[in-house]
Structure formats: C-alpha cells, structure tokens
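Example 5.3 — DNase I-like protein
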Amino acid sequence: MANELVDPFHLNVLSLNCWGLRFIAKVRRERLNEIGVRIAAKSPPPHIVGLQECWTQEDYLAIREHTQHILPYGKFYHGGIFGAGLAILSKWPIEESSMIQYPMNGRPTAFFRGDWFVGKGVAYARIRYGPGIADVIEAFCTHMHAPYEREPNDSYICHRTAQAWEFAKLIRGAIERGHLALGMGDFNMLPLSFAHELITKHAPVHDVWRVLHPDSSIGASVDSAEKARGRPVPTVEQNMLENGATCDSAHNTWRWNKGQQQRLSKGERIPVPPDTPDPNARRLDYIFVGAPSPSRQDVNSTLLPPMTKTAWFVDDVRVGMTEPHPSLGCSLSDHFSIEASLSRRFGVEVPESLHTISSPSSEKAFHNYYPHSYQTISTSSRPDFICSRPHPPSTSQPLSSLPISNRLPIQTYTSILGLVSHYNARERFQRHFRLTHFGVQLLISIGCLVAVWWVPHNYVAFILMLMSTLGLAAGVLDGLIGGLFVGSELRALKEFEWEVRNAQKLALESKSQSMESNVGRAAPATEAQQELQHQSFLNALSFLDQLHQTRNGAEVQEEDRYHYTEYDAGVPNEKDIEEGATAAAPAAPEEPPAPIAGVGTGIEMERLGR
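Solution (predicted structure tokens):
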C-alpha cells in the first residue's frame, strides 16, 4: 500500500446514473454488467467513479468484479427503505465514509415516484492518495430529487433547493479543511439554474464542464431559458461535444419512441446521424471540483516558497458511455456518463486572491471520438466541425485562481426564504387536512359500528363494516402522515430557514462593514470639499455686500431689493461674473453648508434692478 500512496499528478473522474431499478429497469443485469466492462476498458483508466441508481448488491458486485484491477477500493452505500443506489469506487484507500441523508426528500404519499422511500442523500468518501497531510480527496456522490414539473410550478423545488444547500455545505467544509473536493452525480438540475447557482456560489466549487465550455447550453432548446438565448436547435454531435448533454438525448435508445424500441428489440440497428436535431437533450449530471486556496494547501511542505504551491487544473471533460450494448444494441443507461481529467502540478505561481483571473497562456485542441458499433457519431468523420469551433482553454488557469463567490447575493437568500414560507404554508395546510380527515373518519367508523346493531339486513351490515375498516385504515394512514411525517418536515424546514436567515444576516453585516470601510476612506476628501465650498460661499457674500455699499454712496432704491434664490453650487452668478466676481464655486456637497447669521442656508443674494 505504501507504494500506491503517491501523488497521482493526473486524476480521472467518472460519474454515471446506471438506471438499475430492480423490477422496473429493462435488461438491468446485462446493462450494468457491460457498464463494469466499459469502465475497466477506459483509457486512461478512471481513478474515482461515482455511481447512482445502482440499487442492488448483485449489480454492484458485478461492476466491482470487472473493475477491481484498476479500482480495488469501493463502497456500496445503504440508506432509505429500498437503498440509496449510490456507490463510490476508488484507486486509493477509503479512510472514512458516511451516508448523509437529506433532511428534506420528497413525500411518502408520492409512492409511485419513490424519492422518499429510497432515502436520497450524499455518499461521502475520504480518499487518501498520498502520504502528505493534505493528500486527501473528499468525494461526494449524490442523486437529488427529480423534477416532475417545470419551474416555477415544480412542487418539489423547495426540496431540491434544500438539498443543494446541504450539498454545498458539505463540499465547502471539505475545501475549508484544505482538501480537494469532488462533487459528482445526477443533480436533476439545469446549468445556471437556481440550484446550480446555489451550489457554485454557496461553496467555492466549479462546474468542470463550464470551466472549459463557458458558452454551453443552459438547458434543452425547448426550455425557456435556452430559448431566450436565441440559439439554433443543436445537433446530437453538438450536444455531446459542446453542451455536455447526458440525458434525453436523441442518441440514447431509451428516449426513442415505442416503434423505434420495438424495431431495436428485434435486432434492427437504427443509426443516428451526427447532424440529427436534438431539441430535448439536457445536462443533468455534473462534476464539481473545489480546490483549496493557496494558503491552505501544502501545509506539510516547507521546501516550496510561500507563493509557489501545487495547483489543480481541469485538463479535459467529456460525455462518455455513449456506445450501445454490443449484443442488445441498446444504450447502457438512460443517462450518459460525465468524465473529467484533472491534473495536479507543482511549482505553480498561484495568486493569493481567489478572484484573480489570468489570461490563458495556451490552448489545447479538444477532440473527442465516440466509436460505435454501427458508426453513428464519429468526430473524426467531421473534422470541419471540430476545427470550425474554438478550442476551449486547457490547463492555463489553476482552479484556485478562477473567480468564485464567497456569499450568495442578498436577493437569493430572500428568494429561498420565499420558497420556504410558501412550502411551510402548504405543509401546515396538509397537516391540518390530514389530521382532520383522521378525526372525521374515526367518528364515521364509530357510527358504522353502532349502526350495525340496527340494520335489518346482513349485507348492509357487511357494507358498513367494510366501509368502516377501509375508511379507518385510510384515516389512520393520513393521521400518521400528518402527525409524524409532516411534523418532521416542518421541523426540517425550520432548521433550513434558520440557516438561510443566519447566512443572510452574516452577508448583510459583511456588506455593511465593507460600505462603512469605503465611507471612512472617502470621509477626509468629503470634509475638505465641504470646507472649500463653505469658504467660497462666504467670499461671494462678502463681495456682494462690498459692491452694494460702494455704489457711489447712493441709497438703495425701492426697486433695488434683495431676492433670495436657491444657491446653485458649482455655477457662478452671471452678474457677479460681469462685475468681476472671481470666487469659484466648488462641486455640490453631499450636505448643505452651515447657516450664516442673517442669511438663509444655501442662499445666494442677487440684486435686481441694476
């Protein structure tokens, strides 16, 4: 093991939703077995793999059997009623692991969806890849609540928001400990969506796809956010190479219509040309990477200069597992994999500021080749496509120098609190309704039991007993849900609300302190400006008074009266200029000057009738 604990220099990460639902997913065993074969055949081989919807030990062990020579360490995570479906495989030892369940995770009444029953959460693994104190990777694998409606009408948006908040807290803690943090999985969210920005702004992490493809799509072309960009409908090839679409692709056989799937089941191969329009494909699978700041990494190294640290770079990112099953012809899952290659480099000048961006010093051609048994997508057959688009920057910038946000915008906290308030009102209504149903049904059942003694026919008594039994069962179930589940969810909402309000308070205090600091630095200049303006004002008044008293000794006539007008700061009086007034008025002050005895504050005396 000592020989294995060396700096990897290159780190390859893979995340895949396997679609391994027992009794529901078709040809599950064959597909997951082939997934293990494909992972083992990857070149370069992956070092860390995160799997979602791998529900059974049987499928997990089948994948481990094929990959144990490159990924000798692994953990199958148990959670929920039917299992969490999460697994992490690693080249290096797993020192610690945890299954952290999300506090908010669907509703038991939606049994046909199953999110609550599987106990979705975060699979955590602490992986040591070297002997140094900081030679640790903290890997987080998750599968968030699925969206069943489009935002903002999604009734589970509060659940996914709370899950994104929890995930961001976990991954931020890993970075603050000075470790490389990997967040991977099926997040069931679109790029730059509310949940996506919550993760990338509440934790100092980067979406690796957007690091190399910052102009990639932010949803399917049929989604409103992507429509607003005015982009043409992308092709299958563009979605794979540029947009990182891992779900709902026209190339995925599980998204085909019933007729195409029937033809496929009969052994017919249906090619998908690279230029096929792909309006529904979207990116739901992500790899987030957070590198520790320069001040926290290499704490065990005394040989490197203070500003010369090791830094992590994103070298490549791609969509994988696109090839169909060799004998069945179907896709290996209803998702494609997301794969990333990172590198750790020594002797890199890393800016101390995490918000400094340096211009890319070099670029690397990004070229992916997708071999298929029936030749559907091959970028080598379309060299003009690769050459016509700009190559994304390779490893020109370390992750720790890319821009990050330490805190969410203030309005984001307000939006989250609005979601919490709305969902809290809904849950309180649900609790009241379900407990009321339980009480009413209990009274009805008692009434049916009493009525049995008075009915003249046995079949009527049977109907009353049946209604009483079924109704009471439904009432008790509703009572348990309203009294236990809804109560626990309301308490989880209170915890979530407190965390958001506390973070909002800290953000406001930080903003206030920053503003006070800026005002303090600007105060001397403002006071000097006010003093200069005040002195100029006094000079102007003195000049006008002297001018009035020396007008050939003449008395002031009836029409020579004083007229008070608003003082125009910064603009000299025209008649003063004509008579030789030289006092220059400065820029307008933030506050009016101090009043002078006998003269209104901020008033210029202008003699009329000259």
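Remark. Confidence is low (pLDDT under 50) at residues 1-6, 298-308, 352-393, 550-610.
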